[in-house]
């Protein structure tokens, strides 16, 4: 396994770069989109609620590969130059955002309704109340499950391999098929994923500890 | 003290995993070493790896659930020649990427899966004599500016199959083109259709098969390599390999081989008869 | 122009008739106690005034805004009508000082310095100057409620609604909160207080409303007189129990 790692190190680094960029882009993207749809679902206007629920239910219940394939195969008819990396990252964002929306929704709903009422009675608009009072409290509750989503996201980025997205898994496939050392290659790939995900897990746990020191009322 | 320990723990965990993985990677494969001749004679079962997404060579017939094609018929003919008419021939679908691991792990006894005989592969497995002479070509959408492999200049994208010999070749013949590798033939063709690449490269026989599905695409520029297909077997199976080569000679001599060739390739327009052995 | 006017207001939760034909006019500077058995609609009535509950029919005018009109901007009403809750509802993620300054800064667009100067005055009014930097979770119930009142006052509202402000408090700290409410009353604030504190209703309030089953049963501008000689049969029964229990 070590010899595979050293011989093909540049390829693994290339793969790590793509995996890392896809993960970071998808992490930011899915957090923003997930937050928007979480707000859709809990807001008082029914049409927005319906849109939010439909979005979440659809993308939560379709395999990631199908979503990613859709962007790789179908969307280029409408958007030219949508390559495998972009299509895969968009797929990742949309798929993950559905789970994040669900997570954030649960977090928001676990914040005492009185907080929203107090903020509204204080003259704040709905969005101000969300931004300054409810969301900061929800975020604290949501950090551990959000951490799980992020780790899943990094692992799920291996979907890029199916779309020739140059990621770690893709490079692994190519190395395995040229060297025929399948077991060693995939073990090395697994190890590299661990190196990406373990620090992320520990970082989220650190955040969780630090944030929980500001206790709730 | 406590702080130190919590910092060391993740490292320890990582080290443990590396050790575990290294040990795992050393595990060997025993099934592949059993003598195929003896086992098939005993059990009357033989398992072949074939493509199931490649028209003309190995394609799943959705109505019957059977895999059909040139490779499948050749494998059946060889098996029956060696082990008798009543031998039970099983087919397992493989891709360019999975075929060698499956063979080496002993999941299958032999491969008839559009596989070119190459020196690199010979290091890993054994090949029979050539049973089909293919050549690599490219396929493009009708009306494309790309007329041959020479037109694959920088800025163009070529779709190929992971683990196929054609991907290695295209890097030599069109070094400036970007090569995107997909998992199987069907996916690569779908990617071509949705504009993910300017051309697709594979062996001519495979491309002609795709061409029959969708006449909007055409094979251009002829073949630029020779791709002799061989039956793949595990190293150490000398007895089996010898029997396969004898069987190949036998079915050529008695006309069975020609019948199979005619069945699959006589109606393929544009297919150059000379590439067939 | 009156501060608040209810004209034939009804409120339903599904089939439940929570408020029945409410007609009520509240003038500026009035200190009104709303009393009655639980489930009588007191809190619902209070919450309609700043739009936390929508009315089902009738007309409700608050500070010249028509609350039944969907075009009315509720935020403008809430800016002028504060609310103090039974369970305080201090912002759990903000310090005591931030709890008081957030509204003035974000809603009234005051500068941070100005808002903090005001907040410090209010903190000394409620007697909690030394708690400014703490998080709400570190305060006692009585302290929380005094901060909640300060938070309301910081918006310089035209009226403050109190929804059972002492019900969740330990008996020994109720006095501190009532003391603060008395100070606010002296400043001439319009106060509408849903309460079980009959002492406050009798001594500080200048009007008592008795509710039962979603209706206003008695409306008295002489609290002393009301407590001595209630007219309504349900009010008599209610007061009898309260006095008996205390």
From TrEMBL, chain A:
<feature type="transmembrane region" description="Helical">
    <location>
        <begin position="62"/>
        <end position="79"/>
    </location>
</feature>
<keyword id="KW-1133">Transmembrane helix</keyword>
<dbReference type="InterPro" id="IPR010065">
    <property type="entry name" value="AA_ABC_transptr_permease_3TM"/>
</dbReference>
<keyword id="KW-0472">Membrane</keyword>
<protein>
    <submittedName>
        <fullName>Amino acid ABC transporter permease</fullName>
    </submittedName>
</protein>
<feature type="transmembrane region" description="Helical">
    <location>
        <begin position="85"/>
        <end position="108"/>
    </location>
</feature>
<keyword id="KW-0812">Transmembrane</keyword>
<comment type="similarity">
    <text>Belongs to the binding-protein-dependent transport system permease family.</text>
</comment>
<feature type="transmembrane region" description="Helical">
    <location>
        <begin position="186"/>
        <end position="204"/>
    </location>
</feature>
<keyword id="KW-1003">Cell membrane</keyword>
<dbReference type="InterPro" id="IPR000515">
    <property type="entry name" value="MetI-like"/>
</dbReference>
<feature type="domain" description="ABC transmembrane type-1">
    <location>
        <begin position="16"/>
        <end position="204"/>
    </location>
</feature>
<feature type="transmembrane region" description="Helical">
    <location>
        <begin position="20"/>
        <end position="42"/>
    </location>
</feature>
<dbReference type="InterPro" id="IPR035906">
    <property type="entry name" value="MetI-like_sf"/>
</dbReference>
<dbReference type="InterPro" id="IPR043429">
    <property type="entry name" value="ArtM/GltK/GlnP/TcyL/YhdX-like"/>
</dbReference>
From TrEMBL, chain B:
<feature type="domain" description="Solute-binding protein family 3/N-terminal">
    <location>
        <begin position="45"/>
        <end position="268"/>
    </location>
</feature>
<comment type="similarity">
    <text>Belongs to the bacterial solute-binding protein 3 family.</text>
</comment>
<keyword id="KW-0732">Signal</keyword>
<dbReference type="InterPro" id="IPR001638">
    <property type="entry name" value="Solute-binding_3/MltF_N"/>
</dbReference>
<dbReference type="Pfam" id="PF00497">
    <property type="entry name" value="SBP_bac_3"/>
</dbReference>
<protein>
    <submittedName>
        <fullName>Transporter substrate-binding domain-containing protein</fullName>
    </submittedName>
</protein>
<keyword id="KW-0813">Transport</keyword>
<dbReference type="InterPro" id="IPR001320">
    <property type="entry name" value="Iontro_rcpt_C"/>
</dbReference>
<feature type="domain" description="Ionotropic glutamate receptor C-terminal">
    <location>
        <begin position="45"/>
        <end position="267"/>
    </location>
</feature>
<dbReference type="InterPro" id="IPR051455">
    <property type="entry name" value="Bact_solute-bind_prot3"/>
</dbReference>
Automatic annotation (TrEMBL), chain C:
<dbReference type="InterPro" id="IPR017871">
    <property type="entry name" value="ABC_transporter-like_CS"/>
</dbReference>
<dbReference type="InterPro" id="IPR003439">
    <property type="entry name" value="ABC_transporter-like_ATP-bd"/>
</dbReference>
<keyword id="KW-0067">ATP-binding</keyword>
<dbReference type="Pfam" id="PF00005">
    <property type="entry name" value="ABC_tran"/>
</dbReference>
<dbReference type="InterPro" id="IPR027417">
    <property type="entry name" value="P-loop_NTPase"/>
</dbReference>
<keyword id="KW-0813">Transport</keyword>
<dbReference type="GO" id="GO:0005524">
    <property type="term" value="F:ATP binding"/>
</dbReference>
<keyword id="KW-0547">Nucleotide-binding</keyword>
<comment type="similarity">
    <text>Belongs to the ABC transporter superfamily.</text>
</comment>
<protein>
    <submittedName>
        <fullName>Amino acid ABC transporter ATP-binding protein</fullName>
    </submittedName>
</protein>
<feature type="domain" description="ABC transporter">
    <location>
        <begin position="4"/>
        <end position="238"/>
    </location>
</feature>
<dbReference type="InterPro" id="IPR003593">
    <property type="entry name" value="AAA+_ATPase"/>
</dbReference>
<dbReference type="InterPro" id="IPR050086">
    <property type="entry name" value="MetN_ABC_transporter-like"/>
</dbReference>
<dbReference type="InterPro" id="IPR030679">
    <property type="entry name" value="ABC_ATPase_HisP-typ"/>
</dbReference>
């Amino acid at each position: 396994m070590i010899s595979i790692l050293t011989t093909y190190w540049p390829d693994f680094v290339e793969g790590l770069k793509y995996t890392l960029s896809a993960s970071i882009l998808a992490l930011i993207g899915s957090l923003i989109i997930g937050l928007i749809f979480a707000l859709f679902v809990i807001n008082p206007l029914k049409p927005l609620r319906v849109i939010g629920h439909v979005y979440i239910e659809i993308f939560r219940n379709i395999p990631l590969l199908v979503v990613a394939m859709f962007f790789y195969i179908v969307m280029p008819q409408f958007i030219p130059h949508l390559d495998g990396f972009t299509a895969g990252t968009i797929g990742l964002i949309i798929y993950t955002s559905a789970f994040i929306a669900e997570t954030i929704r649960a977090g928001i709903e676990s914040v005492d309704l009185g907080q929203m009422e107090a903020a509204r009675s204080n003259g704040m608009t709905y969005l101000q109340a969300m931004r300054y009072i409810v969301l900061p409290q929800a975020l604290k509750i949501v950090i551990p499950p959000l951490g799980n989503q992020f780790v899943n996201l990094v692992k799920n980025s291996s979907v890029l391999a199916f779309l020739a997205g140059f990621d770690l898994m893709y490079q692994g496939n190519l190395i395995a098929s040229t060297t025929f050392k399948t077991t060693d290659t995939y073990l090395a790939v697994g190890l590299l994923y661990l190196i990406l995900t373990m620090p992320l897990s520990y970082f989220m746990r650190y955040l969780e500890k630090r944030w929980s020191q500001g206790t709730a009322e | 003290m406590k702080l130190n320990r919590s910092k060391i723990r993740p490292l320890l965990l990582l080290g443990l995993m590396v050790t575990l993985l290294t040990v795992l990677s050393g595990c060997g494969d025993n099934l592949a070493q059993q003598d195929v001749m003896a086992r098939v004679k005993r059990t009357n079962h033989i398992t072949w790896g074939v493509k199931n997404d490649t028209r003309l060579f190995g394609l799943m017939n959705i109505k019957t659930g059977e895999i059909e094609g040139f490779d499948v018929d050749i494998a059946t003919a060889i098996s029956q020649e060696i082990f008798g008419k009543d031998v039970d021939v099983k087919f397992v679908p493989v891709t360019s990427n999975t075929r060698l691991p499956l063979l080496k792990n002993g999941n299958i006894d032999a491969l008839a899966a559009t596989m070119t005989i190459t020196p690199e592969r010979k290091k890993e497995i054994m090949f029979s004599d050539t049973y089909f002479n293919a050549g690599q070509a490219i396929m493009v959408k009708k009306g494309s500016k790309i007329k041959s492999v020479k037109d694959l200049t920088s800025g163009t994208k070529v779709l190929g199959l992971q683990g196929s010999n054609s991907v290695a070749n295209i890097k030599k013949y069109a070094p400036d083109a970007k090569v995107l590798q997909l998992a199987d033939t069907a996916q690569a063709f779908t990617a071509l259709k949705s504009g993910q690449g300017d051309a697709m490269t594979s062996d001519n026989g495979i491309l002609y098969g795709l061409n029959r599905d969708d006449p909007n695409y055409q094979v251009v520029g002829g073949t630029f390599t020779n791709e002799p297909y061989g039956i793949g077997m595990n190293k150490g199976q000398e007895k089996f390999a010898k029997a396969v080569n004898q069987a190949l000679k036998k079915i050529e001599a008695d006309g069975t081989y020609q019948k199979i060739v005619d069945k699959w390739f006589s109606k393929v327009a544009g297919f150059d008869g000379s590439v067939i052995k | 122009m009156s501060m608040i006017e209810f004209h034939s207001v009804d409120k339903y939760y599904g089939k439940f008739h929570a408020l029945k034909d409410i007609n009520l006019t509240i003038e500026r500077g009035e200190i009104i106690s709303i009393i009655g058995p639980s489930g009588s609609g007191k809190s619902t009535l209070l919450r309609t005034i700043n739009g936390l509950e929508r009315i089902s029919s009738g007309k409700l005018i608050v500070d010249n805004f028509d609350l039944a009109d969907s075009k009315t901007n509720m935020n403008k009403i809430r800016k002028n009508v504060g609310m103090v809750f039974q369970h305080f509802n201090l912002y759990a993620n903000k310090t005591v000082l931030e709890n008081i300054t957030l509204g003035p800064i974000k809603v009234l667009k005051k500068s941070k310095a100005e808002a903090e100067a005001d907040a410090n005055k209010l903190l000394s009014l409620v007697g909690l100057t030394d708690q400014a930097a703490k998080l709400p979770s570190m305060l006692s119930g009585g302290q929380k409620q005094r901060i909640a009142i300060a938070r309301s006052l910081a918006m310089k509202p035209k009226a403050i609604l109190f929804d059972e402000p002492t019900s969740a408090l330990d008996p020994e700290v109720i006095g501190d909160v009532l003391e603060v409410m008395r100070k606010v009353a002296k400043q001439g604030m319009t106060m509408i207080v849903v309460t079980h504190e009959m002492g406050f209703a009798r001594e500080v309030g200048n009007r008592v409303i008795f509710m039962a089953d979603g209706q206003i049963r008695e409306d008295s501008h002489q609290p002393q007189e009301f407590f001595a000689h209630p007219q309504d049969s349900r009010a008599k029964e209610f007061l009898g129990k309260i006095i008996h229990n205390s």
